Amino acid sequence: MEPNDHRPGSPVRSGIPEHGRIPKYYAVKARIAELIEELGEGGLLPTERDLAERYEVARETVRQALRELLLEGRLRRSGRGTVVAGPKLEQPLSLASYTEGVRRQGRRPGRNLIGLEQFPCPPELAPGIGAEPGEPVWHLERVLLADDERVGLESTYVRVARVPRLDSDFQPDSSFYGYLRDRLGIAFGDADEKLETVLATPREALLIGTPPALPMLLIHRFSRDQDGRPLERVRSLYRGDRFSFTTHLKAQ
């Protein structure tokens, strides 16, 4: 890796501080990154012991380098060891469904239902979905899949009055947006979103199948229909090692 790396998206000077002193694990990480490029997607990485011998460092140094590469999504654990991961899924920040975003990248979207329940709307939720406090609302919780890989967790809140037959007419593994559009004639008008980085709770990590220490991307969305009426609130948790988000900006 060149000392001054100005390739698009790369850290300047390959992340080396101006004083030139870098932690030993980071130097090993850079060399493993070069090996990742050589192996290609699905390539099997040598064992920690082999890497330690190759780079003449302690196994703990290799382990720290691998830990960061795993968190960044460059590597993934497999039954046969550690392999080179594929590219991250790019999800647009737009009023498109998760299904549409995954299909555009040639992947197969899916969802596993965790639960669908009704409960009285609490006061703090009511304004965001256009409900009265105490009014019945649905909570739809599903694990997000891409080619059968668990990549996220989605919670949707919507008034029962807007979708009264959600428990009988809706297929939980399908697109909720498609259901609103095709079965109920409800179109989305606009939405407000907030994106932040969080750690999953123990329950969320178990459902998604990740370590609790893995950084997650959390999106809160408040959507309105074509008439400007509040429609839904969605809390979407995405694996930070498998997702990136894109948007197009225009001058105002």
Brief summary:
This protein has helices at residues 24-39, 48-55, 59-71, 98-103, 126-129, 166-169, 176-184, 202-208; strands at 75-78, 81-84, 89-92, 109-120, 136-146, 149-159, 188-199, 215-225, 230-239, 243-246. It is an alpha+beta fold. The longest helix has 16 residues, at 24-39.
Structure description:
This protein is α+β, with helices and mostly antiparallel strands. Helices cover 27% and strands 33% of the residues. The chain has 8 helices and 10 strands. Strand 5 and strand 6 form a beta hairpin. Helix 1 (24-39) crosses helix 3 and helix 2 crosses helix 3. The longest helix has 16 residues, at 24-39. The two termini are 40 Å apart.
Number of strands: 10
Low-confidence stretches: none
Q: What do the pLDDT scores average to?
A: 87
Helix content: 25-40%
Number of helices: 8
SSE topology:
Layout: H1 24-39, H2 48-55, H3 59-71, E1 75-78, E2 81-84, E3 89-92, H4 98-103, E4 109-120, H5 126-129, E5 136-146, E6 149-159, H6 166-169, H7 176-184, E7 188-199, H8 202-208, E8 215-225, E9 230-239, E10 243-246
Helix pairs in contact: 1-3, 2-3
